[in-house]
């Protein structure tokens, strides 16, 4: 089963991730942010070879370390073309990436940006800036769409309650949570309709 390692990667509370297959030692870097060397160090310690570089979306605080990872590993860049038009592997809803003996599934969750995606590994999701512990991503940035973000969150709410969330920033009381915890505690998840969500997201 694929393993996920969370890495504290910037002054902006960004999280990077290293996904790897313990049997084959094939790995994927996710959102290398400002400290891409930390993913490289972790991969080296584990003896993991980075085959893929994944971006949850195109914002600079997530992609700043792409170049170092790509140049030093030969990994292929996979991202949604609406955010990163020049990736090696364009992602879309339902894309499946093989990594060693495991599969990384792609859920397209537009809203924070048009090309925001979530990476699903068994019952774990790497959520970028779509969903944080206790809150959700901003919808007031260039390219954001509050209606699309609301709809993306409605899809995530339907995942099994035990699904573990690995967010793009350390903004909550804990570094990870579950869909079940969010359903009880995340005010953005608890909004009963689009109107209340729009008001909460854009006016407070
Ligand atoms: Fe972002």
Brief summary of the model shown:
The protein is an alpha/beta fold. Helices cover 27% and strands 29% of the residues.
Task: Kindly describe this structure.
The chain is α/β, with parallel strands linked by helices and 204 residues long. It has a single domain, classed as 4-Layer Sandwich (Metallo-beta-lactamase, Chain A). Helix content is 27%, strand content 29%. Strand 8 (102-108) and strand 9 form a beta hairpin. Bound molecules: fe (ii) ion (FE2). Residues 57, 59, 112, 129 line the site of fe (ii) ion.
Helix content: 25-40%
CATH homology superfamily: Ribonuclease Z/Hydroxyacylglutathione hydrolase-like
Secondary-structure element string: EEEHEHHEEEEEEEEHEEHHH
How many E-type strands?
Answer: 14
Strand order of the largest sheet: 1-2-3-4-5-6
The biggest beta sheet is recorded as: 6 strands, mixed
Q: Determine and state the CATH class.
A: Alpha Beta
**Rounded average pLDDT:** 97
Q: What is the end-to-end distance?
A: 41 Å
Provide the list of bound ligands, each named once: fe (ii) ion
Continuous helix count: 7
Structural class given helices, strands, pairing? Answer: alpha/beta
Compute the gyration radius: what is it? 16 Å
The CATH topology assignment is Metallo-beta-lactamase, Chain A
> How much strand?
25-35%
Overall 3D form: globular
Q: In the CATH classification, which architecture applies?
A: 4-Layer Sandwich
Any low-confidence stretches, pLDDT <50, length ≥5?
none
Total number of domains:
1
List the helices and strands and how they pair.
Elements: E1 3-8, E2 15-20, E3 26-30, H1 36-46, E4 49-54, H2 60-63, H3 66-73, E5 76-79, E6 89-90, E7 96-99, E8 102-108, E9 117-121, E10 124-128, E11 131-132, E12 135-136, H4 146-157, E13 164-167, E14 177-178, H5 179-185, H6 187-190, H7 194-203
Parallel strand pairs: 3-4, 4-5, 5-6, 10-13
Antiparallel strand pairs: 1-2, 2-3, 7-8, 8-9, 9-10, 11-12, 13-14
Helix pairs in contact: 4-7
The structure holds fe (ii) ion.
Residues 57, 59, 112, 129 line the site of fe (ii) ion.
